[in-house]
Amino acid sequence: MAVAWSEKASSMKVLSLSPSLSPMSPPVILTQDELKKVAAFKAVEFVESGMVLGLGTGSTAKHAVDRIGELLRQGKLNNIIGIPTSKKTQEQAISLGIPLSDLDSHPTIDLAIDGADEVDPYLNLVKGRGGSLLREKMVEGACKKFVCIVDESKLVKYLGGSGLALPIEVVPFCWKFTASKLENLLRDSGCVAKLRNDGKGEPFVTDNGNYIVDLYLKKEIGDLQVAGDAILRIAGVVEHGMFLDMATTVIVAGDLGITINNKH
Ligand SMILES: O=C(CO)[C@H](O)[C@H](O)COP(=O)(O)O
C-alpha cells in the first residue's frame, strides 16, 4: 500500500545519528559510509536471538553483517542462522563465524536486512547495481520482514529517477536480442540498454553465471507492476531489479538523523 515520505511513511524519528552522541552534542556531519553504518546498526536492533536472517549484499548491508557478527561474538545474540544473498556476503559471514544455511533448508526467513540503489515514496526499490538482484529477490521474497537500509542519497521521486541503472539479469545467450526487446518494451520511457562490464572489458558475470543489462530511463515508467511483469515475460530475462511492495521497513540515515519508514 502507498505511503509518502512527508506524510505517512515516517513513523519514528531518532534524533541522534551516533549512539555515542548526547542530545546536546553539536551537529556532526557524517560521511556517506558513516550514514550507511548508522542505518545498518539501527536495523540490527530488530534482530533477535533464534532468528533466521537474510543477509544482504553491498556496502550498506556489509555493515549490518559485521554488526551481527560482532553481537554473536559478544554473546549478545545466539542461535542465528544467516541466508546470504551473494557469494561475497557468504564469504564475509563465514569469516565472522555466522552460521549459514539456504532457502532449501529454511524456506521462511524471519528478517532480511539489505541496502538499495533507489527508494521511491511508496517504498519500492531498485536493487542490483551490486549485481546480486536475483538471490536478493529470492531471499527477500521469502521474508516475514524486509528492512531496507539506505543513506538519504538513495531517495528518488520515482524508480529510475536517479538517472542510474535499472539492472536486469539476463541469460548470456543472445543478450543483445534480449536487450533490444527490453529497449522496445520501455521505449516510452526513453530506455537505453547497456551490457554491464566487469571493468576489465569483459561482461560482468553474476553469481548465477548470467549477465546484467542495465536500463537507463529518461522518463518515469507508468505502472511498475505491469512493466515488471512484462519484463519477466521476455524470454532471456531472468529477473529485474525492481523490488515492488517488498520492503516492510526502510531505514534512512541523513544529515538530520534516522527516519524509520514502515509500510502500512
Ligand atoms: O542491490 C544491491 C546489490 O545487488 C545493493 O543492495 C545495492 O546496490 C546498494 O548497494 P550499496 O549499499 O553498496 O549502496
UniProtKB/TrEMBL annotation:
Its EC number is 5.3.1.6. It comes from the Eukaryota. Pathway: Carbohydrate degradation; pentose phosphate pathway; D-ribose 5-phosphate from D-ribulose 5-phosphate (non-oxidative stage): step 1/1. Keywords: Isomerase. It catalyses: aldehydo-D-ribose 5-phosphate = D-ribulose 5-phosphate. It is an enzyme of class 5 (isomerase). It holds the Pfam family Rib_5-P_isom_A. Belongs to the ribose 5-phosphate isomerase family. NCBIfam families: PRK00702.1, rpiA. This is ribose-5-phosphate isomerase. It comes from Hibiscus sabdariffa.
